Amino acid sequence: YAAKVTGGRQQHYDPALDARASQHAELGAELRTGLDESQFFMVYQPIVALPSGDTVAVEALVRWRHPQRGLVSPADFIPIAEHNGLIVELGAWILREACTRMAHWRDTLGARAPQRVSVNASARQLSEPDFAGTVAAVLADTGLPPRCLVVEVTETAVFDSDTALDTLRAVRALGVRIALDDFGTGHSSLGLLQTAPVDILKVDKSFVDHVGTPGRQAVIARALIDVSNHLELTAIAEGVETAAQADELYRLGYRYVQGYHFGRPAPDPMFSGSQHELAA
Ligand code: C2E
Ligand code: MG
Ligand code: MG
Ligand code: MG
C-alpha cells in the first residue's frame, strides 16, 4: 500500500482497489447487455436423499457466458447485479427459467423427475414490494405447482431488509417452501429460526468440511441437525465432497445432502452422463 498523508490523517491508497472498482463498473454495464443478449444460462445441482442417493431436488444456479471474459462466476456478478439493481430483472428471469425447466422435467420424466427446484433470491429481491406477486405469476404461467418450488435466502438477506420477513411470509402462503442458505455464516441468530417463515436449513459447507474431524468446528454440524429436528425443519448439508463426509453426516442424522461428491451443477443433471459443469 502507498500511504497518502492528508493533514495528519492517513489514508491508504490501494491501486488494486481502484482496478476492482472500475472492473465493477464495467461488469455492471455489461450485465445489461448480457440480459438483452441472452448470455445467461442455468445449471442445476442435485440434492440427494441418504441413503438411497436419489435426486429429490435440484438447486438452480445461474451462469454468465461472457463473450470476452468467458464463464463469469455468480460470486463475481451477483453482488454487482444487487448493487446496481439489475438483480431484480435477472432474478425474475432466473425464476422463470428454473420453473419452466422444472415443469418440463415433470412432463417428460414423470415419477423420475425431481420433486422440487430450489432458486436463490437475494436481499434486493426480497425488498421488492411485489416479489411474492412475481413468484405467483411465474407459477401460474409455467403451471408449476407451488410445492415444487423452494426459494433460498441467506440470513443476511433476511436481516438486511425490513420487509424480507413479510415477503417470505407472502411467498410461503403461496405454498412455496423457504430455505435458509449458508446457514451459520451470516448474522446467525438461532432466535430467527423460531419466528422466521422457514422450512429448510442449508448447513454451510464450512461446517460440512470439518465433519468427522476432531475439534471444535465439527461440533456445529452435529448441533445443527438437532436444532433442525427439534424445530421440524429439513436440514440439507451443503458442499459434501467426500464419501467419508457423507457417511458421517448420515450417522449424525442428515438425510439430505448436496455437493460435488453427488453431482456438480450441470445444464441437465437429470440426463447428463457426465456430471461435469459446462466449460466456457
Ligand atoms: P449457494 O447458493 O450457497 O450455492 C452453492 C454454491 O456452492 C454453488 O456455487 C455450487 O456450485 C457450490 N458447490 C456445490 N457443491 C460444492 C462442493 O462440493 N464443493 C465446492 N467447493 N463448492 C460446491 P456457485 O454456483 O458458484 O454459486 C455461488 C453463489 O452465488 C451461490 O451460493 C449463491 O449465493 C449465488 N448464486 C448462484 N446462482 C444464483 C442465482 O441464480 N441467484 C442468486 N440470487 N444468487 C445466485
Ligand atoms: Mg443456494
Ligand atoms: Mg448454499
Ligand atoms: Mg454457499
UniProtKB/TrEMBL annotation:
Range within the parent protein: 447 to 726 of 726
Protein name, per record: Bifunctional diguanylate cyclase/phosphodiesterase
Organism: Dactylosporangium aurantiacum
Domain of life: Bacteria
Domain EAL: 24-279
